[in-house]
Amino acid sequence: MNIHEYQAKQIFHKYYLPTPKGFLATSINETIQCAKKLGGKKWVLKAQVHTGGRGKAGGIKVANSLEEVKKYADELLGMVLVTKQTGPEGKLVSKIYIEEGVNITYEAYLGIVLDRALEMPVMMGSRDGGVEIEKVAQENPQSIKKIPIDPTVGFQDFHGRELAFELGIFKEDMANFIQFAKTLYRIYLEDDAELIEINPLVKTDENKFLALDGKMGVDDSALFRHDEIEAMRDLSEEDKAEVEAAKYGLSYIKLDGNVGCMVNGAGLAMATMDIITYEGGTAANFLDVGGNASAESVAKGFELILRDKNVKSIFVNIFAGIVRCDRIANGIIEATHNVEVNVPIVVRLDGTNAKIAAEILNEANIKNIIVAHSLEDGAKKAVEASKK
User: Fold this and answer.
1) Which of 103, 123, 171, 365 sits at 20 to 30 Å (Cα–Cα) from 320?
2) Rounded to whole angstroms, how far apart are CA atoms 124 and 109?
């Protein structure tokens, strides 16, 4: 689960990780009042949407007067912010986080993420702060220092020193930087984060390190331990289809291809997407109906797949164990009653009640169904059908 920058900074404050003082505003007048509360002569207005690259897209403005605060608030609120991560549809801006301006003498990138290959957290740092870290990783990967942290040992001072040397931190700032990095690791660990990024981490004229930005994602499976973080969830920032799917116990993620997929089990779903690619097609989605699929949830899965106008065929690939094939078959039939199915459906059912399911589908006499006898056969037929 991703959260907004202002929410990440609320968590930072709880751990005494320094950030600039700021307030959330949802109207022009509220933004002006917040600027007056902050005082000073410079303010930074930031669009609060779940995407990176806001600055380049015009979602971050620096105001040097209250008149400019008013002007930029008017520009930001209600705008559709389009970045590489949002796609052409963009994100509607309905909230602004306004912060006090700070004088920066140094900036860098600092982040922490789980490295699944190493099976441990990795803290990353780069002197190229304030720019898209993905671009840095692509064009200049050697400029990113990665420090694996064994969870049984935890973050130690030597980790901090190694990272500080790479980032060019001065000797007199070393202790402050190490404490900052140590606190970041503590947040990552205690709040079950999947990712924390501070871009940029800055040092001010007063020789203070501040998290000028904050991006944080939390493990969905650990939210039961963090009611206060779960309450931060902003469903308006999430894909509507994915949110709707979750209500029916479905794991759905929209992709860019044209072969819709309905599969049981995450491993089989990944294998199905791989073999579709191998056969020359592209998957339009990841959809795992899970082990407790009902006819209703399967029908909802079909409905979600068919909402995607790019879908030209659907591959139903079920290897039944806990979930029964007849449930899937009844779900397919129910879907054809609720939604107009105008694309070919390639069906491969194997396992529990597969023969019963085949009889159900035969008796239903659904014209668009194509029977497949194996995973490979199903993938070939689904890809061929998508091209016709």
Assistant:
1) 365
2) 8
